Amino acid sequence: MAAVSAPAAPRRRPPRDWTGLAFVAPFLLVFGVGVVAPLGYASGLSLFQDQLIGGRSFVGLQNYVDAATDPRFLDGISRVGIFLVVQVPIMIGLALLVALALDSGRVRGMRFMRLGIFMPYAVPSVVAALMWGFIYGDQFGLVGQLNAATGLALPSPLSQSWVLPAIGNVVTWEFVGYNMLILYAALRAVPEELYEAAEIDGAGEIRKAFSVKLPALRPALWVATLFSIIGSFQLFNEPNVLQTLAPGSISTHFTPNMYAYQLAFNANQVTYSAAVAVVLGLITVVVAYTAQRMTARQESR
Amino acid sequence: MRLSRTALSAAAPGICLALLATGCGGGDADGGTGSSGDRSAEIEAALEEGGELTLWTWSTKFESAVTAFEEEHPDVDVEIVNAGQSADQYTALQNAISSGENIPDLAMVEYFALPELALSEQLVSVDEWGLGGLKDEFTESSWRQMTYGDTAYGLPNNTGPLIMLYNQKVFDEAGIDEPPATWEEYAEAAETIKDELPDSRIASIDPGDAGGLDSLIWQGGGRPFQHDGESVTVDFTGEDTAKVNDYWSDLISRDLVAPEPGWTDEWWRSLGDGSLATWTTGAWALGNISSTLTDNAGDFRVAPAPMWDADDPQNAENGGSGFSVVEGSDDTALAMGFLQWFSLNEASVDAQLDAGSFPAQSAPLEDPEWLNKEFEYFGGQQANKVLADASGQVAQGWQYLPYQVYANSVFGDSVGSEISEGGAVQDGAEKWGEQLRSYGEDQGFDVG
After folding, report:
1. Looking at the structure, do residues B166 and B310 belong to the same domain, yes or no?
2. ipTM value of the model?
3. Does A230 map to a domain?
4. What is the pLDDT of residue B25?
5. Does B441 map to a domain?
6. Which Pfam family, an example, fits this chain (chain A) (predicted)?
7. Which member of A8, B219, B268, B440 lies 3.0 to 4.6 Å from B447 by CB, making a disulfide possible if both were Cys?
8. Under an 8 A CB cutoff, do A140 and B445 touch?
9. Cα distances (angstroms) measured from residue B317 to each of A61, B110, B113, B301, B400
């Protein structure tokens, strides 16, 4: 039809080309069904209240007002906040160190090491948490055996004061390899000429690392950090699995995600849980966006 | 769903409404006869006609009883589905009912969860189907735990009167001749064990197990939870409640008991290698310990749980469950027929006892053959006699909250953290109580 009518009545502007839409449509469909619809549903749900006596009723923004002052929710937020500030730099730092070491080509058994460090990422986080749970055991676990063998009295990693670092250790173990791979891939993409030029200027390996490699790594570092920030806010599997071993140390509101889960599945409060999840999502977006602005500003200097 | 059921049972409840006060619901032995006559014909017809039933339970103790039922009723096909353990199953059940899909016909319901499920209209009253008249076939305490308000929402199946499993070898090594009969003696035994065997403790106390502490409080005479219709009381400040909590705080702070979670791999190993000398728990645990710690055959014995007053033994229950017909079942009449046969037919009950279930039915508790059974695992002890006595001593008046599933889930947050850090259990319990009161108010209860 278009072919017939077009030459007959030429328009001033060329007809809109819908070909692009056809290519994007599958994504849009999945995005709509998988992301937009659940978000809309959860946001809608969050405006209601569920009661064992009284059923469901519309409460407007009351759930959000409650969440803003809910000590359990705020407790979880501040805990993952601390976790993020401490664990993410350590993990990214380690990943960077390993990536630089591997890239320098001075490490023996490079392939083996690369694979070995990446391997934990292939272990499902639930399995990893279970495994570390055994290691942390102060009776029959590694900690218990160390204490028995050396006469030390190492504190239980699952006690209230040590459980957060213990979880940080599990998460670091799981994700150092993944971040290392992102950074290592970025390093391999640095053009050889830059290194040659640096060598002609008389730079050693360390000077090359600081002046050539690190600047080239910035975008990759940013990606790795962004994923880790989001991951920290989403913390769930590790503490949830360890909770069985340490119910007195890991509360039901230990992380915001655990709290949302608890509200939805044990506390009969799906609607309030939806509000908590929406707030958590917003906080994550704000923190990630702020981090991005900070790096962007640095880069423009 | 509610409508169709009401329509089906229009006649009998109509009369009930008119009479209102008495004789309805089959609370009395002969109270339900009027309606039971009508409905038993309906149930019989459903059993004749046959059909398919789905039964949710995570326990493996019921397979042979279900097979026995199917042999007797070849036209009825019963599928057992494991929909998760305890709280997981209740969540799944609620989801199924609210979505209206994959609703099971029957489900195993623990006593602590019954009020919550009954209140949220997930279970069908057995009184409406004339099964209320079966009350006398079960122990009084178990029947009461299957009722909410004055209505029974299922038939009791198994109970967990509190008993103490102890490791005879550890007691011998520590030089303890008799298992402690009172909590005072228990504390002394705890000291002896720690002195004689520095790596062993008398027991662990689980910072995550609300049911465990609940039953100890129950046994000590405390009644922190009460409900009547929509009004609820949560009070942990009672003298008897505090007595139990302070007792355990004392043992924990003196390092006489291990504040460790139960049921973990590490915990089973501690129990197996004698690091833990006793386990005070429900009678159902005999089956669990003998099938888990197979290398320890002959080590353990069963004793009554320690008492607060040896002259006036008051016991409690830990766990226990019944079976209920689920609201929204495709064939409620058939499900009721199954429930009755499964709960009381001799072949079915025998199969359940063989699988290690501790009965809520009164008949086996008086059956000499069952009572005299010698347990090889427990050194040839006639353990059922101890259990039956323990069952007979269960004290009355205990209630769970109509939101006990939630209550148990947040136990670790307040009480658990006190237990695992050696703090004051009583403080934790009072904090727990505060949280439960404010939750009750949020949920629309009248909290006193």
Report:
1. yes
2. 0.86
3. yes
4. 37
5. yes
6. BPD_transp_1
7. B440
8. no
9. 44, 12, 14, 19, 12
